[in-house]
């Protein structure tokens, strides 16, 4: 193999590696953006309210993919039973705070319609001295850009 052929091969391999790197980065960015955007519940800053009640059920929405599947609570207040949408399962599974049927909690969130039914999209859930912050006052989720840190 002469020098020119070797240089041509190096360029070919280098170009292929560069193309694969760019494709890999593009895929990772797209996957990351989709991962954070796939779970979505309505939120209206004009309808924020505070509720107290007892958890009747802790459940997951029907989606099969963890990026989309949400965690909700059915909350029995003094006046009603209402679903409280917390956030995506992948995010809540990494939180220390887990919810159990029968617990009394406070919820601050936005009353909206989801699939034609009233629901609360939670910003904050309080049990005793513990708080689980889920969204800011505009409804922006705290899990956007969040990654579990290694212990």
Task: Report on this structure.
This protein is an alpha+beta fold and 151 residues long. The protein has two domains: 1-38; 45-133, OB fold (Dihydrolipoamide Acetyltransferase, E2P) (Beta Barrel). 26% of the residues lie in helices and 36% in strands. It has helices at 3-38, 89-92, and strands at residues 48-60, 70-76, 81-88, 104-114, 117-127, 130-133. It has a five-stranded mixed beta barrel.
Mean pLDDT: 82
Number of domains: 2
| Number of beta-strand segments | 6
Uncertain residue segments: 31-37
The percentage of residues in β strands lies in: 35-45%
CATH architecture of the largest domain: Beta Barrel
Helix content: 25-40%
What is the first-to-last residue Cα distance? 52 Å
Q: Assembly type of the shown chains? A: single chain
CATH superfamily of the largest domain: Nucleic acid-binding proteins
> Whole-number radius of gyration?
23 Å
Number of helices: 2
Task: Give a quick set of tags describing it.
OB fold (Dihydrolipoamide Acetyltransferase, E2P); 151 residues; five-stranded mixed β-barrel; 2 helices; 2 domains; alpha+beta; elongated; single chain
Can you lay out the helices and strands and say which pair or pack?
Layout: H1 3-38, E1 48-60, E2 70-76, E3 81-88, H2 89-92, E4 104-114, E5 117-127, E6 130-133
Parallel strand pairs: 3-5
Antiparallel strand pairs: 1-2, 1-4, 2-3, 4-5, 5-6
In short:
This protein has 151 residues and is of the alpha+beta class.
């Amino acid at each position: 193999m002469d020098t020119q052929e070797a240089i041509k091969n190096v360029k070919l391999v280098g170009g292929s590696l560069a193309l694969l790197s760019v494709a890999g980065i593009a895929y990772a960015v797209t996957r990351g953006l989709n991962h954070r955007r796939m779970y979505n519940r309505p939120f209206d800053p004009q309808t924020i309210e505070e509720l107290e009640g007892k958890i009747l059920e802790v459940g997951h929405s029907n989606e099969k993919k963890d990026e989309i599947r949400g965690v909700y609570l059915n909350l029995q207040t003094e006046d009603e039973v209402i679903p409280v949408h917390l956030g995506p399962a992948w995010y809540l599974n990494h939180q220390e705070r887990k919810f159990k049927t029968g617990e009394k909690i406070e919820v601050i969130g936005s009353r909206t319609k989801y699939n034609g039914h009233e629901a609360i999209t939670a910003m904050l859930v309080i049990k005793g001295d513990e708080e689980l912050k889920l969204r800011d006052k505009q409804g922006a989720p705290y899990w956007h850009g969040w990654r579990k840190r290694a212990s």
